[in-house]
Amino acid sequence: MNEEMKCLRCGGTNLKPSELQSTGKIYSCPKDAKLTAVLTTGAVMHAYICFDCGHVDLVVDPEKAKSLAKVP
Ligand SMILES: [Zn+2]
């Protein structure tokens, strides 16, 4: 993520990286994931908090997500 991120909800620019809290990292795995991806972790999710409206934006590395999915 770059410094020019805007909040998808309010358009504010007061966003900071954060982490979702759990007993471990949270991953996202495409529904059409390759078998090898299903047996391993998915793409780690990163969160950004908007300090103007409280919106939390979740993103994964698109290249990692593509490598897990059955997409070209
Ligand atoms: Zn916002």
Describe this structure in words.
This protein has 72 residues and is of the alpha+beta class. It has one domain (1-59). Helix content is 15%, strand content 24%. The chain has 2 helices and 5 strands. It has a 3-stranded antiparallel beta sheet, with no helix packed on it. A hairpin with a 5-residue loop joins strand 4 and strand 5 (56-59). It is elongated. The mean pLDDT is 80. Zinc ion binds next to loops.
Protein traits:
72 residues; 3-stranded antiparallel sheet; alpha+beta; 2 helices; 5 strands; binds zinc ion
Task: Work out the number of β strands.
Answer: 5
What is the gyration radius calculated from CA atoms? 14 Å
Number of helices: 2
Task: Profile the largest sheet.
Answer: 3 strands, antiparallel
Order of helices and strands: EEHEEEH
- Strand portion: 15-25%
Q: Tell me the distance between the termini.
A: 23 Å
Summarize the SSE layout with pairings:
Layout: E1 15-18, E2 27-28, H1 35-38, E3 43-44, E4 46-50, E5 56-59, H2 62-68
Antiparallel strand pairs: 1-4, 2-3, 4-5
The chain binds zinc ion.
Short description:
With 72 residues, the protein is an alpha+beta fold.
